[in-house]
Amino acid sequence: MNIGYRALLCLSLAAPAAFAQTPPETYTPVAGQPGKDVVWIPTPDATLEKMLDMAQVTPRDFVIDLGSGDGRMVIASAKRGARAHGVEYNPDLVALSRRAAAAAGVADKATFSQGDMFEADISQATVLPLFLLPSHLSTLAPKFLRLKAGARIVSNTYEIGGGWEPDASVRTEPCASWCIAHLYVVPVQATGAWRLADGTWLTLEQSYQKLYGTYQIDNVAVSIENGRLRGEEISFTVNSVAYTGRISGNTMAGVAKGRVTRHWSATLARD
Fold it and tell me: Whole-model pTM?
């Protein structure tokens, strides 16, 4: 082995360590730069604020941004008092985000980690503000549905799809690009047969936040109409009587408004 070859070998072995060093303070990301799964495009400020408004972010929330880029969504959430965490694969962007959080005075609430968004633990999130492609949203959808009922997912431009329709969509104006926000509220699981206090049965089937089923009255099964879930809140209509209520575990209760207004409750008997 000659000296020149040894020097070249040492240089090649040292290169990974050099690239792993903390990025310089002058690092500046460029819109459109490639990433692991998608190019980086920052969410416009107007859309960002609209997304957080739609999700009604408060200090009680834990916000997680998957593919957090330069950290702007996480930092904006922290400025509203929420605990917020960003998962970003690019270590340069992670370091940049941490510096930005410190400069904004929210480093105690805005944290970041370098990692793969598909492997991230989002189970404790109450809000997910996302800017991902439809294919990514579709892949993550099963994890979204395992979030606690009432968690809010708000997506920049792209819909989750697969039959899950937004609970609300808003367009910011003026709109050049990336200016539509879609809100999804994770629904409680309501499928099953519910026995009401008066002995009648409510049998429900669920497709995301939409409900279908029958209400058994005097041994006659009447189809419910306008069945809907919003987190733990439930609503449906039977024979022009509007039922609203809340599901908590194996029980639900609320108010029925028709010719008269009365309280109603039901217990899950079988699913």
Answer: 0.85
d(CA 66, CA 211): 30
Residue with tokens 């669920």: 206
Output the CA–CA distances (angstroms, integers) from residue 205 to 8, 86, 137, 192, in the order listed: 67, 36, 24, 7
Q: Residue 20 has what pLDDT?
A: 47
Top CATH class, 28-185: alpha beta
- 116, two tokens: 């793969």
pLDDT digits (tens, 9 = 90+) for 102-114: 999 999 999 999 9
- The CATH architecture one would assign to domain 192-270 is Beta Barrel (2.40)
Provide the 3-class DSSP secondary structure of residue 3: helix
Q: How far apart are CA 130 and CA 148, in angstroms?
A: 18
Intervals of the chain under pLDDT 50: 1-20, 22-23
∠ Cα 28 33 38 (to 5°):
130
Q: Domain extents for the chain?
A: 28-185, 192-270
